[in-house]
Write a structure and sequence with these properties.
The complex is a heterodimer of chains A (about 525) and B (about 350).
Chain A: H1 2-16, E1 32-37, H2 53-62, E2 67-69, E3 78-80, E4 83-88, E5 94-99, H3 113-126, H4 132-135, H5 144-147, E6 148-152, E7 155-159, H6 166-173, H7 183-188, H8 197-202, E8 210-216, E9 220-225, E10 238-243, H9 247-256, E11 261-262, H10 267-273, E12 279-294, H11 304-312, H12 316-320, E13 328-330, H13 352-360, E14 369-375, H14 378-392, E15 397-403, H15 405-413, E16 419-424, H16 432-438, H17 454-457, H18 463-472, H19 478-495, E17 498-511
Parallel strand pairs in A: 1-10, 1-11, 14-15, 14-16
Antiparallel strand pairs in A: 2-3, 4-5, 5-7, 6-7, 8-9, 9-10, 11-17, 12-16, 12-17, 13-17
Helix pairs in contact in A: 11-13, 18-19
Chain B: H1 6-35, H2 40-45, H3 51-60, H4 67-79, H5 93-128, H6 133-147, H7 150-164, H8 189-195, H9 199-236, H10 239-246, H11 251-279, H12 283-288, H13 294-303, H14 307-335
Helix pairs in contact in B: 1-4, 1-14, 5-6, 5-9, 5-11, 5-14, 6-9, 7-9, 8-9, 9-11, 11-14, 13-14
The chains are: A alpha+beta (about 525), B mainly alpha (about 350).
């Protein structure tokens, strides 16, 4: 099916090449933004449960957080939003937030510290997939009454189990799970003690600029202005996101003027739109990384010289300039560019002579059989085929094991792969999100079952680096903290069985009249409220 | 002891056949769900969940129970129309299907009407005028329909009629301005907009459906016209047709009154099969035209390992096949006195 879909895309791209589509016969209304996007991953709007890309796009525009990113200045980091200020206790274990006044939910209820307390507590209690973002600070269903506490309507006190870096805690609170929901609305719709979870899956009760008025799974999401929003009134009163699977179809709609923004354009369609009047392409660096990793249970792949040879025999630039052109850039560190502590070092480049020399110096100079486990997504298969080709030049007998996402993931979590080729996106906008999985594995035994850690999945024991990762989350000097991650990544590049390959660039096509479209960079999601057209 | 009337026997036999077929379908779909090399727990909780969350979900899904108990629960829930919750949409599978199936039903029905209205006369004409240019055209149309991939024709259609000419609307069921205006009654937008008196919505929906329906109709047409031609040729060479002509009947009476009359039963099967195929959902057509139908629903669910949705959808499709078969059986009995 995936192959068929790809064929469809290529077929229409070929068909569209050189074909003049009448532009802008239709036009979307001035007060409305129409977006074509793949939104079939939306399962819920509940911030305590939502953990998908398209869901995060909705959530960011519907729910406000204690602190949040300014879409027009993402580099500035977290800024006050529902909390106007905060102070940290001397021991670094308690953060006291003072709530800003004037924020009102779309339901008409005023936002208070009690709502923030309720929202964070319910996220911990419900213990859905993203709950780890909060529970990593020591919050548990048993202790939340003491550790997450609103002392009055304007004061919220968080008590942590360690003196974590404030930047770490606040960065986590900017993620979707930090969204503050209307306690009254949620509890009025509570069923069987679910704290409104079922209701909030399809309804929203936030204080952000928009509210969801209609959602048809796999079809569309419709958002209207929150009449009670206390910020500057957004220029666009209604936002419609249509689920359009095919890049070629999105391109046709954009050329016809039926949509304002196309969010899933293929390389071919981006190229095809380059000279189309009234359309522009906006590139944005996102947080997703593409990497390969070697299972250290495999004797040959546990040899550092073999790994070095494989890293040197990957044609980074060749891939980035051909089938990945414009959509990925070469990047070889585990923190995406724009994250605190990110580095641009590119220690590996395609050099088959150096790679052969490294392999010759290993205990496996003739290389041997290598199975690359990869899911059935075209860009990943293309990368795997490129590796198969260049590693083949070293004499390795490379076989691709292509499976569905779940099959490939099952094998990866069970530590049954040789080489895994896949993608990783940050869970929250703090360096620990990637350091804590690429460079942290305190117990490498099978019994530990730390399936969430990429280092564990690859059976990579790294006791010292794990300690360094832990040390970085309690470093309160932000500059020093950044330097710690830089050092950690340089060591990782030299010693790890991971070959980080690329960082994603999102190429969004839109009408030339659309301004301030920010997809969220590497740290957050899209912000509709600043867009004008 | 009073004897059981034949009609009662037939009814009992039919009901037994349906029950056994559906139970078999349930068993097969259940087993597919269990033997797939996919971890259903991971499909629910995702890649980042902890082991504790994994364990909780494993129990919540009832996977710790014996297989027979799981099957019994599955059958019991399915009989109540409860196929569980879709992990992809977060909604009940039954409500998802109630939402997507009418979209496919509407598209398939229009497509089949198109295929029958044009395909049957074309097939008859091709048989009667065998070897003439009409026959050549009919065969060419059939050949294209058989050999051209549906997505290619769909894309060409979209590019020409939407992209270049602008005669029809683009992907989706209705224009963005009309979304959510019509309160669903049947779930079929054309019907609902008429029932609610929303003419603008009807026009927009018609403008959206006409291209994918014509495309699907074309593929039905190719199949139906080819089969009709073949059935008719067989009849036209029969002795009773010669006798009818010798008797001095008009060509119209010979063709429609005699030959066509005798192929109706075969045609019913052909049309029923064509209709059932379209009701399965033409996945590629639905994807290209962003048509939120059951074909796309099942396929996307399959790719996301959403087995509840896949199994629920499969059972619905299977039941439709059973239903259409029974319906065509009934029509058989109506048209063929020997079957009564």
């Amino acid at each position: 099916m995936k192959t068929e879909n790809t064929f469809v895309a290529l077929a229409l791209a070929a068909l569209l090449a050189g074909t003049a589509v009448t532009h802008a016969q239709a036009e979307t209304p001035a007060n409305m933004l129409v977006i074509a996007n793949r939104i079939d991953d939306i399962k819920t709007f509940d911030p305590a449960e939502s953990f998908e890309f398209a869901g995060a796009d909705v959530s960011r525009n519907v729910y406000q957080k204690l602190v949040n990113f300014d879409p027009l200045d993402l580099d500035a980091g977290y800024q006050p939003q529902l909390a106007e200020s905060w102070i940290v206790s001397e021991d670094g274990m308690t953060i006291t937030f003072t709530m800003a006044e004037g924020h009102v939910f779309s339901t008409g209820n005023t936002v208070t510290a009690k709502d923030a307390e309720f929202s964070l507590r319910r996220a911990v209690s419900l213990n859905k997939t993203p709950a780890f973002i909060l529970t990593q600070f020591g919050f548990t269903p048993e202790n939340i009454e003491d550790t997450i506490k609103a002392t009055d309507d304007r004061t919220l006190v968080l008590t942590l189990d360690k003196p974590y870096a404030v930047s770490f805690v606040l960065n986590c609170l900017t993620s979707t799970i930090g969204g503050v929901v209307d306690m009254q609305a949620a509890m009025e719709n509570e069923v069987d003690g679910d704290m409104g979870n079922a209701w909030l899956r399809t309804n929203t009760a936030g204080s952000g600029p928009y509210k969801v008025v209609d959602w048809k799974p796999n079809e569309s999401v419709l958002m209207d202005l929150n009449p009670n929003y206390n910020g500057e009134t957004p220029a666009l009163e209604r936002v419609i996101v249509q689920h359009i699977q095919e890049s070629a179809t999105q391109r046709l709609q954009l050329e016809r003027g039926d949509i304002d923004v196309a969010r899933n354009l293929s390389t071919e369609d981006v190229a095809g739109l380059a000279d189309v009047e009234g359309v522009k392409i906006v590139d944005e660096l996102r947080g997703r990384l593409m990497y390969f990793s070697a299972n250290q249970k495999n004797e040959m792949l546990a040899d550092p010289k073999v790994i070095e040879a494989l890293k040197l025999a990957a044609d980074y630039e060749g891939m980035a300039n051909s089938f990945l052109k414009g959509q990925y850039t070469v990047h070889q560190a585990f923190l995406p560019r724009t994250f605190l502590g990110a580095i641009d070092d590119l220690p590996f480049s395609y050099d088959i002579d150096k790679a052969s020399a490294a392999l010759a110096a290993s205990a496996f100079p003739g290389c041997g059989p290598i199975k690359i486990s990869v899911r059935d997504a075209q860009e990943r298969i293309d990368i795997a085929q490129s590796l198969q080709n260049t590693w083949g030049q070293l004499g390795c007998d490379v076989e691709l094991i292509v499976g569905t996402g779940a099959q490939t993931l099952d094998r990866y979590r069970a530590r049954e792969h040789d080489i895994y080729l896949g993608a990783w996106g940050p869970d929250y906008p703090d360096p620990n999100t990637n350091a804590g999985t690429f460079a942290f594995n305190p117990d490498n035994s099978d019994a530990a079952g730390a399936t969430g850690l990429l280092a564990w999945r690859n059976a990579w024991a790294l006791p010292e680096m794990s300690n360094d990762t832990l040390a970085a989350v309690v470093e309160n000097d932000t500059e020093a903290r950044g330097a710690m991650y830089q050092e950690l990544q340089r060591e990782f590049q030299g010693t790890s069985p991971f070959g980080i390959l690329f960082q994603q660039i999102e190429q969004n096509g839109m009408g030339t009249n659309v301004e301030n479209f920010v997809a969220g960079g590497a740290t957050t999601a899209v912000s509709y409220w600043v867009i004008t057209k | 002891m009073p004897s059981i009337p034949p009609w009662l026997w037939k009814t009992i036999a039919t009901l037994t056949t349906i029950s056994v077929t559906l139970l078999g379908l349930l068993f097969v779909t259940f087993m597919i769900g269990r033997v797939m090399p996919i971890d259903p727990v991971l499909a629910v909780i995702g890649e980042r969940a902890t082991q504790a969350q994994y364990n909780d979900t494993f129990i919540a899904l009832g996977l710790d129970r014996p297989l027979l108990v799981q099957f019994w629960i599955y059958v019991r829930d399915a009989l109540h129309g409860d196929f569980g919750q879709s992990i992809r949409t977060g909604q009940d599978v039954s409500s998802d299907i109630a939402r997507v199936f009418p979209a496919t039903f509407e598209l398939a029905t229009l497509g089949t009407i198109f295929g029958v209205v044009i395909g049957v006369p074309l097939g008859v004409l091709a048989a009667v005028r065998r070897g003439t240019w009409i026959d050549q055209v009919a065969r060419f149309v059939g050949l294209i329909g058989y050999s051209m991939p549906i997505f290619w024709l769909g894309l060409v259609g979209l590019l020409v009629f939407y992209g270049i000419l602008g005669w029809v609307s683009g992907p989706g069921r209705v224009g963005i301005f009309y979304q959510g205006i019509v309160e669903p009654i049947t779930g079929m937008l054309l019907v609902d907009s008429l029932l609610r008196g929303e003419w603008d919505v009807f026009k927009s929906a018609f403008s959206h459906i006409i291209l994918p329906a014509s495309l699907l109709g074309y593929f039905s047409l190719a199949y139906i016209s080819r089969m009709t031609r073949s059935f008719m040729l067989e009849q036209m060479n029969s002795e009773y047709i010669i006798t009818a002509r010798v008797k001095g009947l008009s060509e119209w009476q010979v063709v429609w009154g005699h030959a066509f009359r005798n192929i109706r039963i075969q045609l019913i099967t052909v049309i029923a099969l064509a209709y059932a195929n379209l009701l399965e959902g033409s996945v590629l057509t639905e994807i290209i035209f962003a048509w939120p139908g059951i074909g796309q629903y099942i396929t996307t669910s399959l790719l996301a390992n959403d087995m509840n949705a896949v199994l629920g959808g499969t059972i619905v499709i299977g039941s439709i096949f059973v239903g259409i078969n029974i319906f065509s059986d009934l029509l058989y009995r109506f048209f063929d006195p020997r079957a009564k």
